[in-house]
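Please, structure for the following, as tokens.
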Amino acid sequence: MPPPWHRGTPASQAPAGSAAWSVAVRTENARPGSRDWKVPGSRGRTPGLDAYAGQVSVLPGQPVTLYVRAAPAGPVRVEALRVGYYGGAGGRRVWSGIVRAGAQPKPKTVSTAIPGSGGLADSRMVVAPWHPTTVLQTTGWPEGDYLIRLDAGKASRLVPLTVRSADARGRVLLVAGAMTWQAYNAWGGRSLYTGPGGFAGRSYAVSFDRPYDDFSGAGRFPPFDAPVVRLAEQDGLPLAWETDDDLAQHPELAEGAAEIVIGGHAEYWTAPMWEAVRGAVARGTNLAVLGANTAYWRVRLAGQVNGVDRVLVGTKDASLDPLARSDPSGATARFRDAPHPRAEEELTGMRYDCFPADAPWTVTSPDWWGYAGTGVRDGEQLPALVGPESDRVYPAPDRPRPMTVVGYSRFDCGPGRPSAQTGVYWVAPSGAGVFAAGTMRWACAMGETCAKVPDARVRRIVQQVSTTVLTAFATPRAGTSRPATDTVSRYWLPSRSTGTAASSD
């Protein structure tokens, strides 16, 4: 019997097999949609309203605790919006109601040791020690990614939530990058990047018990994950939904998936999650990485509340992490660095190389099967598709082979710093296919709007390639019928970093 955490929809009520899950996705997306997930910028910036969820994800039917601060105190309208295609609307309202909210305690900076943090004494972590406002019951809510919208007066906020799958076996697993959203979250004045005095005053751990400060409270879900979800649901793939936080705490959730899909920016991974995804590929699970700077920082989870970790530890410097001496494999530094170096290309085939990147994507290997139906030509440039962070192949002896370079660009990563970007397809010994876009704008370009990629033809090409790859990868070991040809030697690819991948990236 699976552990209690793993139990969700009773087997008698769940679709049987991947084909039935595909039907379930198509049936769900045939329902009337809503565009309420779109919050006007003025409402999203208006002060007086903040909120966060006490759970990153829940199984269908499990409760969600909502923490809301409103000034002035009064009624707040709450809507639960499931993100999907829905005929182009992009979401569906599954629940709405009214709650009352008012003042909450001020943010608090934690300067004491966090339980389970490995001995980290001073985290500089900001928390919002608020009182619960209401509990949302998710009975009847389909699995998927959600945005909880709150409206009070002239202010609106969004709160991300995943109604996760109990099992991903035989399905296309969409992984939302909640740990990366939280690493960048500076609500309360600190993140893993900044604090009083800049980078030196950053937090060494960040808490999920606080609102997100960007995209009207939705974290970085809207640009990096939502476009992937909508495209996959439009294609009617047999989907499963998890967050990286779920995989970090329960790596077994990756077992048996036909395909794992990583969005536009999933920079922060735990060691167990890294091993789980790499192990799945070694057993035949296909991997699509639709972004860049993936699995760059190794972090770990701590601070359990009701059996669930609510703190992300990331010192970004092994010398600051007590665990570096007792358990080097869990030390919070870059994966590529001591005391337990692991090369990024073992997972994606590439390494993070440049910020800031801003260049066209140059089509190579136009006869690659992923380009079918796009009409692209060899050497054609797709404007502005590369950036703001990019990856490339490092021609190391142990890089994955065979590997086809399907996109390549040369540019300067800052004045006088020549760099390159690659998009690649390769086949693992297990027969698993791996596609890695190598640019953070790939996911953004799938969406209705992407300010940095305004060209409609580029958007259509990215959507078509993504549809072709995700659909092919819905069958395990896709590489056995879609071989790769090794073309890496044709391109200028230095063995050392040429970009500006600094420790604070």
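Confidence is low (pLDDT under 50) at residues 1-15. The CA atoms of residues 43 and 155 lie 5 Å apart.
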